[in-house]
Amino acid sequence: MPPENSDSLTSFKEFAGHRGDYYGRTFLRIQQARLPRLHLNTSALLGGFLWASLRGNWPLFWIGFAADMAAAVNFALIHKYELAAVQAAADGKDFLVQRYDDWSDAHLQAALILFFAGRLLLGWLADRLYYHHYARWRINRSLPSGQAIRRLGIGMLAVLFIAPLTIYRASQFAPDQRSCIKLARTVQDGGQVPLRDRFDCWTISEFPTLVWLERPPQYTFPRNDDGTRSIVVKESSSDRPVNLNNWLSEHIDQGIDYMKAFYGWLFDGVTHWVRVLLNAVEAVFMGTPWVVTSLLIIMAAAKLAGSRMGLFTAAVLLYLALFGFWQTAMSTISLTVAATVICVVAGLPLGIWVAKSKVGAAMVIPMLDIMQTIPSFVYLLPAVAFFSVGKPPGILATVIFAMPPMVRLTALGIQHVPASTKEAALAFGASPRQLLLKVELPLALPSVMAGVNQVVMLSLSMVVIAAIIGAGGMGFIVVDALARTQVGRGILAGIGIALIAMMIDRVVQKVNRM
Amino acid sequence: MVMAERQVVRVRGVWKVFGERAEEALQAIQQDNLQKGDVLERFGAVVAVRDVTFAVERGEIFCIMGLSGSGKSTLVRHINRLIQPTHGQILIDGQDIGALSDEELRALRAKQIGMVFQNMALLPHRSVRDNIAFALELRNTDPFTRHQLANKLLETVGLQGYGDSMPSKLSGGMQQRVGLARALAADPGILLMDEPFSALDPLIRRGLQDEFLALSRTMSKTTVFITHDLDEAMRMGSRIGIMRDGEMVQIGTPEDIIIHPKDDYVADFVQGLSRLKLVFAHRIMERPETYDKVHGNLADVDTWPQAHPKADLNSLVSLIIGQQCPIAIRAEGKLAGVVTKDALLKGIQGKSS
Ligand SMILES: Nc1ncnc2c1ncn2[C@@H]1O[C@H](COP(=O)(O)OP(=O)(O)OP(=O)(O)O)[C@@H](O)[C@H]1O
Ligand SMILES: [Mg+2]
Fold this sequence. Notes:
The complex is a heterodimer.
Chain A: H1 7-16, H2 20-31, H3 42-47, H4 49-55, H5 58-91, H6 94-139, H7 149-171, H8 177-188, H9 195-203, E1 218-220, E2 232-234, H10 244-262, H11 264-285, H12 290-305, H13 307-322, H14 326-356, H15 358-373, H16 380-387, H17 391-415, H18 419-427, H19 432-465, H20 474-483, H21 487-513
Antiparallel strand pairs in A: 1-2
Helix pairs in contact in A: 1-2, 4-5, 4-7, 5-6, 5-7, 8-9, 11-14, 11-17, 12-13, 13-21, 14-15, 14-17, 14-19, 15-17, 16-17, 17-19, 18-19, 19-21, 20-21
Chain B: H1 2-6, E1 7-18, H2 22-32, H3 36-43, E2 46-57, E3 61-66, H4 72-79, E4 87-92, E5 95-96, H5 102-111, E6 113-116, H6 128-132, H7 134-138, H8 143-156, H9 172-184, E7 190-194, H10 202-219, E8 222-227, H11 230-236, E9 239-244, E10 247-252, H12 254-259, H13 264-271, H14 281-284, H15 288-295, E11 306-307, H16 313-320, E12 327-331, E13 334-339, H17 341-349
Parallel strand pairs in B: 3-8, 3-9, 6-7, 7-8, 11-12
Antiparallel strand pairs in B: 1-2, 1-4, 4-5, 9-10, 12-13
Helix pairs in contact in B: 8-9, 16-17
Bound molecules: adenosine-5'-triphosphate and magnesium ion (MG).
Magnesium ion (MG) binds next to helix 4 of chain B.
């Protein structure tokens, strides 16, 4: 028998207050690791979250409340589908009646299981968690102990706030957003709307539209005879107010239109030079007969990465050729190469700037962080907005997506050049330029090359996605196959892409390691 | 003007305070005479060099010696302005280097000042030869000249045939020789050596010290030599400056410092040092008259062993072993003093007679 009058027992009783004997005994068993595996606290089992709030144990309160709530919601759903079944029967739609009846049965089962399982769980957890509560209370006496009606009030308040609306929401079909907008308009125009509909729209539908704004006027930028453009403002055709989303997106659209109208030369120029670069690359990969290209690629791979890689490359090319992917694959590779070139040429100086200047780091690093968190195909939007569709915008989206590692790794490499090495160079009279070219960049080279490797791989993956905006290549076959549900073709092209990726990755890595 | 010519490097009242609020901290220090700890607490600034003044004369090896963290490296980096003083002036050949333009400063570093680092700091991506000729390359010397010169220097430091090796393939001692060759490449008048031999094991260190002494005698460079090893300072230095917590506590010849340590700190330092080779006869000899008053046997002076006032204690010991009589110290034929056995023993022990 446990020592019934030990120190701990007194402290248990002091903590538990009401029904101290029971908790004293239980806690003693927990401390002695003699609590039966299936021990249940009956008052917690029966009282549920009310018991927990009385005892001031909020974790148990939320567990119990969540289980009971879930059961209640299921009960409400039964009601909802029963009503719906009645309605359907009145409409004579027998198949719907059947379906609604099935659903309400399912919810009944769920409700019962949730209720009983939840209570059992709570009863089982109660003393175990309550013992932890006691342990913390020993350290910090300001934690709640004993039983207090006041805490029951707090618990009830939380219940009152959450339960009614939630259960109401479950028992009703929520109005859709469109009808709520209609309703809001009617209210604004001074029309009469039943109170209940209004209540539904405000509480259980989509978050209500709080801000109504005047529809922005329409701007157009027609071209004059002398080639300049003027700005023409037209009042919006409808004077109905719009919500925040519509208002802002219309402004953004007009901003883009404005930029395109007045700075079109800039975007055209960029598009032009990207196209020039792409043409040059394509001339190499696509303009030469496949005999020559494939031989050159295989030889280059073998020379750079060893004869085994040469063999693998040959196998990949053979796959592409046999399945009729040759031209498309070369187009994809050309896009990748062009994007990589731009990334390296732009990323290297940016990386140097970031490494050397606090301002540069403060400006560029947050941008890189953003660029790396945005999902890749979101980049397609600005590319399309400013550069329309086709290969150049595809390359530009790819560049934005693939550039961050180049900048980061260049900066990292330069920052990791030991201070003592730089100091030595300075001590012998190196100018900042000489320091960069003769010391920092050579020492950062491994890091820079790792950056190039990543750029290549990211470019390849993005170039495939850019097929959505008409960049063509292997990605287009996949996109097209998706649209027409031609799974087989898509899979073959997908394998082709994977093989190209493996080929490039292995070769670039081997080169880096040498 | 003659002074300026003789003194190649002059450091005048240099302060260095590290930290964002260095200027502010410096003013507070000068007004309220704050100590290192207070400055760190109040300004978050570290006082690395504290009002240091000294001059290095042409052709001498000036050793700066102090414990780790006493500001030696910081101080020496002021001389080629790798570090800007918070306050004070550095003159090289009478020219204030704070007033130089960037380009002039680079030329000064490339042509007039060579530096050797504690951690070698060779450029790991360049061959030994390209490392040595680095200063010349920075001044756009043609590759042929660089090549020739590097070969000559490799020979000087005893590394013939290693020109095409990469630095990482060499041992520490060899790397430090490369560092030395690199510092000598532009034939600078001034050498700054920041604990060049500290990272090496004692045998190699000893060898390199000797080699460097021989080299510096033939090439007559003005050298500032940093070390935290007193023995090394005593061996290498024509004069020694002892630093503590950024302050230059004492400057003097090895003998000065050993005989007249300025305070307990310096005395503690030199306590364990063998004086045999660092203290000379004139320091411990008695005037002939004084001797005669006590002993009265000065008449036998011609039968005694003879030594020069500049003879070190070690050689005096050799002379006096097995003798009953004292040693006569003669300068230019005249009797300058007398060293008795007791005086010699006291001299070795470091107690003044
Ligand atoms: N860049 C810096 N920023 C802040 N504090 C510095 C900096 N460089 C040196 N210090 C501080 O200046 C003091 C002197 O450092 P210094 O490197 O000159 O000492 P040292 O005598 O060369 O020591 P060691 O024998 O260990 O090389 C140290 O307290 C150090 O923390
Ligand atoms: Mg140092």
